[in-house]
Amino acid sequence: MIWATSPACTELETHVLDWLVEMMALPEKFKSTGTGGGVIQDSASSAALCAVITAREKATNYRSNARGCNGELVAYASAQAHSSIEKAIKIAGIGSQNLRLIPVDSEFAMQPEALEKQITRDREDGLLPFFVAATVGTTSSNAMDPLKEIGELSRKYNLWMHVDAAMSGTAAICPEFRHIHRGVELADSYCFNPHKWMFTNFDCDCFYVADRSALIRALSILPEYLRNKATESGAVIDYRDWQIPLGRRFRSLKLWFVIRHYGIEGLRHHIREHVSIAQEFTRWVEADEKFELAAPVPLNLICFRHKAGDAFNQELLDRLNRTGELYLTHTRLRDRFTLRMSVGQTNTTLAHVQKAWDKIRSVASEIESEGWDK
Ligand SMILES: Cc1ncc(COP(=O)(O)O)c(C=O)c1O
Predict the structure, then answer these.
(1) To test ligand 1's pocket by mutation, which of 45, 89, 205, 301 has the most ligand atoms within 8 angstroms of CB?
(2) Range list of β-strands (E), 210-328
């Protein structure tokens, strides 16, 4: 819970999170040697909550913890942002009606012009814009929000920018995919989940802040029974002040093992392999006249559908999942039922995905033969 109860737990976590900044070419300010630092949370949802609470405190001159909020704070995220952002806004007492979902472009990325318009309108209405969540790889569509443009608006209007890169962030281990982070140097906080795409057992979310003092000031609480000499020396990190719970697990150990086991080159090899398999699947979908892509495929998530319509696709999904041979999830993109294939499991190979595609096509043919597309 605190440094004194397990110095190794804290020290290894700091060390591994600093390693990851270097491995992924994240901004130096996220390292513990600068003004910021990283901490392992259970999930991206918890990271978003910590970011919102810190942003709320900062925007209210560190008064909201004591006095509560008066409903004037306004937050922003794209219409494709994960539901965890809305959950964080609700839990942090901002009120979900004070979360503005900004429209997206043809590739499902947030439109910065629409964000600026909304911020201006809210300011004119006497409200206080304080937080924006930008996503690198949205859940439904794998869209990449324009971090640079959103970051510049955050600076201009004094908003906290949190970057949610839950699944896709891992791709930055490969230099050729680092363009997904263009503008991340403007972020106040950032998170990605090694438990999604870095071969680490659930749960493990790496959460970084540029200014750790703001996070600690927002979350710190010191009852008598936690007082100790190490904390009072000011020379150690007490991660209890960087998260919601007090007690914590030794999650950095498994992350350390993963990094030691694969090495940077090994991790890159698997990430590249998954992206290449996903791109191959994309070509199969494009080449099949009965199927279509529903969104661009920048990395490892393919959103696609059969052209026969929503009911057909729902039936296709249900039948495929009933086979027990593969499991697909769905979403709605532009209000159309869409299937999602994600390639990211440690041992997934092209042969598995080829088998899945064969199954998808054969089950689709079976449904067609029953007259569904007529
Ligand atoms: C973009 C994004 N953000 C956040 C989450 C939530 O992740 P967690 O389960 O770690 O809270 C997800 C999960 O799918 C996600 O895709």
Answers:
(1) 45
(2) 291-293, 301-306
Query: Are 346 and 272 in the same domain?
Result: yes
Contact 292, 285 (CB under 8 A): yes
Same domain, residue pair 148 and 268: no
Q: What is the pLDDT of residues 308-324, one digit of tens each?
A: 999 999 999 999 999 99
* Residue 152 sits in the same domain as residue 298: no
Interacting residues of 268 by C-beta distance below 8 A, sequence separation 6+ = 173, 174
pLDDT surpasses 80 at 163 = yes
Ligand 1 neighbourhood includes 122 CB (under 6 angstroms): no
Q: Please state whether the predicted TM-score (pTM) of the whole model is above 0.85.
A: yes
Phi and psi at 329, nearest 5°, equal -110, 175
Structural domain span for residue 221: 3-249
Beta-bridged to residue 301, according to DSSP, are: 342
Helix (H, G, I), strand (E, B) or coil at 372: coil
Q: Among 108, 193, 195, which is best to mutate for testing ligand 1, by the most ligand atoms less than 8 A from CB?
A: 193
